[in-house]
Write a structure and sequence with these properties.
single chain, two-stranded parallel sheet, 4 helices, 212 residues, 7 strands, alpha+beta
Length: 212
């Protein structure tokens, strides 16, 4: 089966939709895997968002990002431009998400951008199998959703995978981010997606004091 699902794990970590109870009781880490949003965009890309901050994109219905055949997945010349196109879409969504967060919640957060090595891949939006490549940070974060409970009396702040999730991205902000992404993808300009990707990378570089 061609791998048509690409995803990113938002970093620094956030909660999406709503926060889990903060009564001090142990938290079931499986809450990170809860689906909080799913839709199919007018351009044909299906998306899903988990509470733990993973944003999935299924490119099966969007020809520029769709793997053509089963045999092509090992052909670098065929897959490289497709993977790069997926990366530009994910970075355009990141730019849209940060914009929506500012407009809807009047909040700014540290930026990130996605490179091919940062992609999480899967066979479908509902597959439990995710591939993390060589990114050890993503691999470590993924273990946060293993089916286990924290030991009795252990608070969520004791685990680095849940520490720092002080930002809540509300559902209305997620919806707005995808509305903005659709505007980019439907724009008549042929270079708008690429320019948005470059803009996202420029913002990240500026935050990192990389003015070159």
């Amino acid at each position: 089966m061609p791998q048509n699902v690409a995803a990113y794990y938002l970093w620094p970590t956030v909660w999406v939709g709503s926060r889990p109870p903060t009564s001090g009781t142990p938290i079931d880490v499986r809450v990170l895997d809860e689906e909080v949003y799913r839709t199919t965009l007018p351009v044909g890309i299906s998306v899903k968002v988990r509470k733990g901050g993973i944003f999935f994109f299924d490119f099966s219905g969007w020809p520029p990002g769709r793997a053509p055949t089963e045999d092509s997945k090992c052909n670098l010349d065929i897959m490289a431009p497709i993977i790069l196109k997926r990366v530009t879409v994910l970075n355009a969504h990141l730019a849209s998400l940060y914009t929506a967060l500012s407009l809807q919640q009047n909040r700014a957060v540290e930026k990130m951008v996605v490179s091919p090595s940062d992609l999480i891949t899967s066979d479908s939006l509902d597959s439990r199998v995710m591939r993390f490549g060589s990114n050890m940070l993503l691999l470590g974060l993924s273990t946060a959703s293993t089916p286990s409970m924290y030991p009795s009396g252990r608070h969520k702040d004791c685990d680095w995978r849940l520490m720092g999730r002080n930002v809540l991205i509300e559902t209305k902000t997620v919806e707005e981010s995808f509305r903005l992404l659709v505007m980019i993808l439907q724009h008549e300009g042929s270079h708008v997606l690429l320019v948005t990707d470059l803009y996202a990378r420029s913002c990240k570089a500026y935050e990192d004091y990389n003015h070159s």
